[in-house]
Amino acid sequence: MTQLHLQALPDFPLVSPGDDIAALIVASLSAAEARLEPGDVLVVAQKIISKAENRYAYLNEVEPSEEAKALAAKCDKDPRQMEWVLRESREVLRQVPGVVIVEHRLGYVHANAGIDRSNILSDEDNPRLLLLPEDPDDSARRLRADLQALTSVAPYIIINDSAGRAWRNGTMGFALGTAGFAPVENRIGQTDLYGRPLEVTEVAVADELAAAASFLMGQADEAAPVVLLRGAKLSEADCGSQSLIRDRQRDLFR
Amino acid sequence: MTQLHLQALPDFPLVSPGDDIAALIVASLSAAEARLEPGDVLVVAQKIISKAENRYAYLNEVEPSEEAKALAAKCDKDPRQMEWVLRESREVLRQVPGVVIVEHRLGYVHANAGIDRSNILSDEDNPRLLLLPEDPDDSARRLRADLQALTSVAPYIIINDSAGRAWRNGTMGFALGTAGFAPVENRIGQTDLYGRPLEVTEVAVADELAAAASFLMGQADEAAPVVLLRGAKLSEADCGSQSLIRDRQRDLFR
Question: Taking every annotated instance into account, which residue ranges of this chain make up the domain Coenzyme F420:L-glutamate ligase-like (chains A, B) (predicted)?
Fold first, then answer.
């Protein structure tokens, strides 16, 4: 029977810089009387990876550039926050009051370069932001290796985040970083029920699973930053998430 | 424990015009020794809804307009297919060789207006296409009512389809029509772990669940056009999917 099961790991602790996420996951699995099985996927919220990697950025520690000041005025944002947004970005794509959408230095199109102020304990005298991980694919790869060392099973990893989209309302989970599997499945060569070649051949499986886990994370009454996903038959591959990002020359909506 | 379970209904038959999808679902559930429970979500592939509603469009039964001919030449498509695309659309947004992206008459931004040639048995002398349902929200509402009449349980319904996206590679499932619940969840007024108001407040839960089910449909070895999804705590609401569609005046990426 074709099925998929998702479970938010219970009682996951708040994460601080330097914490060992793999060890926290193993402890949480153990508390839930669960263990990793081959083929399992772990979806991990970007936020706890960023916290463990100490990706905090302090507003009082930057001097906004002229560009940041001008953009902040247009978008009605704090110029110091905008300075951090620009430092994390390659290009500003859209700017209207309340919204700045950029191409992040790693290629994601993301409001505020994915920089977040929610769920961050901040000192009011020195408020801080949380940046995306330095290299989410590398974070995912290391987490996979750490978990394999602890449990002998190397799960597929997705680091997920949520973002707005063109054309449609509401945010949706997507895969910020991956490890161990092909994030875009190529179905070229497969045929439909009647033997015709499939017209659409590339499926963003990592984003579909990130969205599923993101839904579940949002449903939990308490913080649920890790979801165990069982039943997905993914194609093992030694690659990260770069194939999910459309080449800007081939993007019709910039 | 916060969890979500998805199961593709087994042995689902091929669907023909006039078929009663609700009755087919009840039969398939029964064969799987499953039954609907309050709170269940059924995700149903657009393709079988369109087939049951006889939304076939025949290439030989249209005379392409001059606009269709010109667009077909630019996009390297069949002018008769392009005629159907235009009849189903409000506006052509992008046109390059091999690709035409339109705003469908119901507001979706969709390549080829969602018109498909895969999984359709076609007579080579009179090839045919399959259009989207006339009104997917209405289809979803009727399916929900039919299932309630047959089982006494009114499941939440998502009719899903797959589409490409701006910025990212690969297609992804999304909610084409919904019934029974709020497809965009508004978390305004909720606070984060530290009591700060959430910055991002609208989540496209219907699209997240559609993506999850779409992943599972794509994994099945045989046709699996219906997925039973259990564990989602959705907000019951007497509305369809229109709130998922961004108003064109507020869309920065057109």
Answer: 12-231
Task: Say whether residue B249 is in contact with chain A using an 8 A CB cutoff.
Answer: no
User: B172-179 and B56-58 as β-strands: parallel, antiparallel, unpaired?
Assistant: unpaired
pTM for the model stands at 0.94
Domain ranges, residue A102:
56-130
Query: B58 - beta bridge partners?
Result: B128
- Is A200 within 8 Å of B99 when comparing Cβ atoms? no
* ipTM of the modeled complex: 0.94
At residue B196, does pLDDT exceed 70?
Answer: no
Which residue do the tokens 């017209």 mark? Answer: A199
A 140-169: CB under 8 A from B: 162, 165-169
Q: Domain boundary at A112, A130, A148, which?
A: A130
Q: Mapping DSSP to helix (H, G, I), strand (E, B) and coil, where does residue A107 land?
A: coil
The list of chain A residues with pLDDT below 50 reads none
Q: Are residues A161 and A73 in the same domain?
A: no
Strand pairing partners for A156? A41
Q: Is residue B22 included in any domain, yes or no?
A: yes
Cβ atoms A210, A136 nearer than 8 A = no
Is the Cβ–Cβ distance between A219 and B233 less than 8 Å?
Answer: yes
CATH number at residue B83: 3.90.1660.10
Check if B75 contacts A (Cβ < 8 Å): no
A64 and A168 co-located in one domain: no
Q: How many structural domains are present in chain A?
A: 2
A20-23: long-range contacts, CB 8 A cutoff, minimum separation 24:
A20/A52, A20/A146, A21/A48, A21/A49, A21/A52, A21/A143, A21/A146, A22/A143, A22/A146, A22/A147, A22/A149, A22/A150, A23/A146, A23/A150
Tokens of A60: 């009082």
CB spacing of A215 vs B4 below 8 angstroms: yes
Please check whether residues B25 and B109 belong to one and the same domain. no
A201 and A217 both lie in a single domain: yes
Distance CA(A116)–CA(A19), nearest Å, equals: 20
Angle at B62 between CA B60 and CA B67, to 5 degrees: 130
